[in-house]
Amino acid sequence: MNQPILFNSELDSGLCRRTFQNCGRIHIPAILERSSADWLHHVLQEEVPWQLHFNEAGKNYDLHRDQVAVLPESKRVMLIEQLTRNAGTRFQYLFHNYPISDAVLQNTGAISIHDFHAFVNAPDTLRIIRDITGAADITFADCQATRYQAGQFLTTHNDDLEGKDRRIAYVFNFTRDWRPDFGGLLLFLDEQGHIEEGYLPLFNSLNLFRIPALHCVSYVTPFAIGGRYSISGWFRAGPAAGR
After folding, report:
1. What is the pLDDT of residue 241?
2. What angle is formed at CA 210 by the lines to CA 206 and CA 214, rounded to 5 degrees?
3. What gap in Å lies between CA 199 and CA 64, rounded to an integer?
4. Does domain 13-47+92-242 have CATH number 2.60.120.620?
């Protein structure tokens, strides 16, 4: 039986709302009951069928584990080197993901992590997020699981895509024992590129921020141990069927 996903009963949404109103973002520690966070960490680490997620020439690509496994080592190295070079001159990302919302909506099997889609779209969750952020027109959320490992990154962007009706971006973090010098930090930037604030992917925390907002996930260093696990997405307005 899957573990229920529950908010921490001591969550003070009023305090969170006042903090969010000051700058349009917030880092909330101990967001879920510990048993829920422990279970999600286990599922992310042991059960999710990760795929390599990257962009190239204006298109998004996903390579499943079997596809990556059959690539000759020389081609894997060339691909990673090319994507890393691209990051010096354009918007580029390279990490592992699993598109939870797409899998649920397309009914492509059923694994434990799919329960998060129901949790993040539950009436109580949407009510809490509306209350904290003041975004009263939020109607649904999408979600994907992500894993960043050594050499992976997400360069600067603002999440504002026409027609998507994204109101609030979110990141639920499930990474244990992550050090700041490993990289993988969620960084917020001003118009000159200065870092305004940065969040460590602290275990069982939630990051929320208003869209648009310039941000990136910093390069994960070669000496990083393990992976940076999270579930992220956007709280959106409009009808869910219009994704």
Report:
1. 54
2. 100
3. 29
4. yes
Q: Which one-letter DSSP state was computed for residue 228?
A: E
Torsion of CA 230, 196, 140, 142, to 10 degrees: -40
* DSSP assignments along 38-90, one per residue: HHHHHHHHHT---EEEEEETTEEEEEEHHHHHHS-HHHHHHHHHHHHHHTTTS
Ranges of each domain in the chain: 13-47+92-242
Q: Is 57 left (phi over 0), alpha (psi -120 to 50) or beta?
A: left
Q: What is the mean pLDDT of each run of 10 residues along the chain (243 residues)?
A: 91 97 97 98 97 94 91 94 96 98 91 97 98 98 98 97 96 97 98 96 98 98 97 95 47
Classify 207 as helix, strand or coil. Answer: strand
Q: Which residues contact 97 (CB under 8 A, 6 or more apart)?
A: 50, 51, 53, 62, 144, 145, 146, 147
Quick count: other Cβ atoms within 10 Å of Cβ 151? 17
pTM of this structure: 0.96
Q: If phi over 0 gives left and psi between -120 and 50 gives alpha, with beta otherwise, what is residue 116?
A: alpha
DSSP 168-200: EEEEEE--SS--GGG---EEEE-TTS-EEEEE-
